[in-house]
Design a protein that fits this description.
There is one protein chain. This protein has one helix and 27 strands. It is mainly beta. Strands 16, 17, 18, 19 and 20 form a five-stranded antiparallel β-sheet that branches. The chain has a four-stranded antiparallel β-sheet with strand order 1-27-26-25. A hairpin with a 5-residue loop joins strand 21 and strand 22 (255-260). The chain is globular, with a radius of gyration of 18 Å. The chain binds 2-acetamido-2-deoxy-beta-D-glucopyranose (5 copies).
Length: 328
């Protein structure tokens, strides 16, 4: 989620820039915000203008967007993450997308469990202190610890997935929006281990940065920073036009980042120890003039077959699911 612009609905398709195969574009019935992928290969999709969680099977011949569940007292769904096998946590709220403000007291954390024949939906708790609950991730070494980007407060909250209890895990200037709402600071959040150390990678939309910070778990349950935040990439020019939204990390540690208004960028870790991260545009462009990709909000790799595992699914605030074959 980032500073919202009016959606433009388009029917496509045009060829991808630097990927060898033409992306396939599916048109969802609603603008899209976030994506998680089930072990079954099905995509789970959220929207900031709908309280209904959607599923889409990209392996079906003519897949349809199906409602999984409609959450009560909500207008908006943001971050979603699978934090235990088959169990997803997601954020529901009443959100004004003009002001990028969530109604205080309206943000709830829910779990959706796909282990039985029908999804089991449960409210974990109301998140009273979070201002703009955006990206959501979890700590694999302690799976009931969720981490949530608060884009207006510029902090990352720790949420107990059993009780909904919250505490501030990380507060750092690199997470601030540096402007009042509707500006969005820390946005997408994802964990990747380097050796035994978990790193929290995050984008800051308004600052146009991609950063990481090492984490440590104190006494088995309190997450804090284990070092200084490192800024790995700044998208030039760092102005109001080019803003990174959510992203996904691949097995090689590369980040596939949705950059508004219209690019999928790849940030690659340095080849040598003291080298710099590199940036390239994989699809679309940072000026937003390629109709193949407009307002990308998040991305996730497929799951299941090897074909699915090399497919990257990018969702957009124009309601597209763009399927990109990343195999080389
Ligand atoms: C898929 O949709 C196309 C276009 O509507 C149609 O021609 C085709 O028969 C459908 N295929 C299946 C397997 O339903
Ligand atoms: C919706 O919110 C109202 C007012 O806070 C509350 O009374 C009601 O129980 C909520 N409904 C559900 C299904 O959570
Ligand atoms: C969102 O906020 C704007 C500006 O305060 C207001 O004009 C608009 O009515 C609000 N929208 C909703 C759905 O409440
Ligand atoms: C964990 O964090 C909470 C809230 O920030 C704090 O009250 C508590 O003392 C911390 N516990 C430990 C063992 O650090
Ligand atoms: C990394 O980037 C910095 C700042 O742009 C530059 O000074 C430095 O030479 C670069 N290092 C390498 C190894 O390219």
């Amino acid at each position: 989620m980032r500073r919202f612009a009016l959606p433009i609905f388009l029917s496509l398709v045009s060829a991808g820039a630097s990927l060898s195969r033409t992306p396939v574009v599916y048109e969802a019935p609603v603008i899209l915000e976030n994506i998680a992928v089930r072990a079954s290969s099905q995509l789970l999709l959220t929207s900031i203008v709908s309280p209904t969680l959607l599923s889409f099977d990209p392996t079906a011949i003519n897949g349809t967007f199906d409602a999984v569940h409609t959450f009560p007292n909500a207008t908006s769904l943001t971050g979603i993450v699978e934090y235990r096998p088959g169990v997803f946590a997601l954020l529901a709220s009443i959100t004004n997308t003009t002001t990028n403000r969530m109604v205080p007291g309206s943000i709830a954390l829910w779990s959706v469990e796909f282990t039985g024949s029908t999804p089991l939906v449960r409210e974990i708790g109301v998140l009273a202190y979070i201002t703009l609950a955006n990206g959501l991730t979890f700590l694999p070494s302690a799976p009931d610890i969720l981490l949530c980007a608060d884009s207006v407060s510029g902090v990352v909250w720790q949420i107990d997935a059993r009780t909904g209890a919250t505490r501030i895990a990380i507060q750092d200037p690199s997470m601030n929006p540096d402007a009042p709402a509707p500006a969005v600071g820390v946005d997408g959040v994802h964990i990747r281990f380097e050796g035994a150390t978990p790193y929290l990678y995050f984008t800051n939309a308004e600052k146009a940065t991609f950063s990481r910070v090492a984490l440590k778990l104190n006494h088995g349950f309190n997450v804090t920073a284990a070092g200084a935040v490192q800024t790995l990439a700044t998208i030039p020019p760092a102005d109001q036009q080019q803003q990174p939204d959510d992203f996904t990390l691949d097995e090689r540690g590369r980040a596939w980042v949705g950059v508004w208004p219209g690019a999928l960028m790849v940030f690659s870790p340095p080849a040598t120890r003291n080298g710099n991260w590199t940036q390239m545009t994989a699809l679309g462009n940072v000026d937003g003039t390629d109709p193949a990709l407009l307002h990308p909000t998040s991305a996730a790799f497929g799951r299941g077959s090897s074909v699915q595992r090399s497919m990257l699914y990018v969702v957009t605030a124009t309601g597209q699911v763009v399927a990109i074959d990343t195999s080389e």
